[in-house]
Design brief:
Blueprint: E1 22-33, E2 36-47, E3 51-55, H1 62-69, E4 79-87, E5 90-91, H2 99-103, E6 106-109, H3 120-131, H4 137-150, H5 154-157, H6 170-182, E7 188-192, H7 200-213, E8 218-222, H8 226-232, E9 235-240, E10 243-249, H9 250-255, H10 260-266
Parallel strand pairs: 3-8, 3-9, 6-7, 7-8
Antiparallel strand pairs: 1-2, 1-4, 4-5, 9-10
Helix pairs in contact: 3-4, 3-6, 4-6, 6-7
Amino acid sequence: MFDLAAKTLSFSPIRHDPARPVALSARNVDFWYGEKHALKDVSLDVHENEVTAFIGPSGCGKSTMLKCYNRMHDITPGARMTGRIELFGEDVNAEHIDPPLLRRRFGWVAQKPNPFPFSIRENIVYGARIAGFCETRAAQDELVERHLREAGLWDEVKDRLNSPGTELSGGQQQRLCIARALATRPDVLLMDEPCSAIDPIASARVEELIADLRREHAIVIITHNMEQAARIAQKTAYFHLGALLEARDTRDLFADPRTEETRTYLAGKFG
């Protein structure tokens, strides 16, 4: 278990800057699954060109919050939300918002790599073609190479683009899924424990990729790996029993937690 007192952490060299533009803003968000009160009065800003890590015990609301951003809960029976979430100043739940079009503005990377049962090339092209901005063969070829390079995967797969994506290793599949998410030109990347199902070497490659992608995107990542949060996140948000107890610069939160619950969690005593 992670022991705050015993570890010398390697932190991201880039610190949280509250002056950066806000990509996502949540204000007084409450969320219910039927009678279960899953989020309680959550207010949080996610800034452009930063990685924001969500940490906390299992079942504390992290994934629920992530899915509130892109309205993935719309089809969940009995689910309801109050409060306000804005993407670059626009209410994501406004009546004029088309949920499928909203979701295109978010790239989603799941806990377990889930490439489509298509070729490597088609995994990249599929979403972009549906969105209507990658129709010619030349444009598709350029798109495939650009995003596979962004994901650090091009040199490993350039000679087998027509092979099934499901034949790649676990770490390669996860980078393919990241490249697939990037190909739809998202404003924000949402990552739900993207390294939990891959080995440490592959995890390190994904962490390097996230650090690079931060230059062009706002990124929200859920992680149970405290050392990973320290390495890649500029801002860390601690959730506990549906409440957001604190959210601030990662180094400051790790060095001096403001709540006893945060301190206990970072010391590995529960969760």
